[in-house]
Amino acid sequence: MNWKNDAHAWGLVSILLHWAMAVLAVGLFGLGKYMITLDYYHPLYQRIPDLHRNLGVVFALLLVLRLSWRWAGPLPEIIASSRERVLALLMHRLFYVVMFGVVISGYLISTADGRALVLAGGIELPALVSGVDNLEDRAGEVHWFLTWMLAGMFALHAAAALKHHFIDKDDTLRRMLGMKRREK
Ligand code: HEM
DSSP assignment, residue 39? Predict the structure, then answer.
């Protein structure tokens, strides 16, 4: 398998980034929903949010890498009728917009009080925006809304991939798994 995309297939870099981010997105969603149920005296009250923030930053770095890689090379043509192709393209673009929105709102929640976001190894991300009224609450609402939107898009997107595989019997899912094309 090639490491770069071509007009018909995803390369190894895109495939690894896609699945790593899919796993991270699910993990972050689970951690995020779990951590808001913890009360102050729970032994994991600090640890789970710390883990969530660190993995969120890893997700953000992968997102920037993925978008740069996407812009730098060719994209395989979407296998579908022209109407479905437009829908798929819109969905993929919306994914990127929502993923950025989730990352940025998460960063704003963590730095709204003007203090830097401290990551594993003592790495500090400075607070770039602070002193805005109710910033933490507003960013929290946006983060909540966008994470549920991402979950809904995830369900639609996965259902579409399964429809391509089992009903249309085309190579859409196979090529994102790095598998050979079906014999025609
Ligand atoms: C069970 C989970 C998933 C399955 C089965 C799946 C499947 C696929 C497949 C088959 C493609 C390739 C479409 C094509 O070749 O035309 C694709 C692309 C894509 N997927 Fe997923 N995916 C999953 C989870 C996710 C998640 C969680 C995200 C976002 C967090 C995501 C974001 C994307 C994006 C943005 C693209 C377009 C890539 C691009 O154009 O750069 N996927 N997915």
Answer: -
Question: What's the predicted TM-score (pTM) here?
Answer: 0.94
The CA distance from 157 to 176, in Å, is 13
Q: Which domain holds residue 151?
A: 12-176
Distance CA 107, CA 104 (A): 5
Cα(173) to ligand 1 centroid in Å equals 9
Q: How many domains does the chain have?
A: 1
Q: Is residue 61 part of a domain?
A: yes
Closest Cα to atom 26 of ligand 1: 22
pLDDT band at 1 (very low <50, low <70, confident <90, very high): confident
CATH code of residue 70: 1.20.950
CA of 51 from ligand 1 middle (Å) equals 25
Residue 74 lies in a domain: yes
The tens digit of pLDDT for each residue in 87-110 reads 999 999 999 999 999 999 999 999
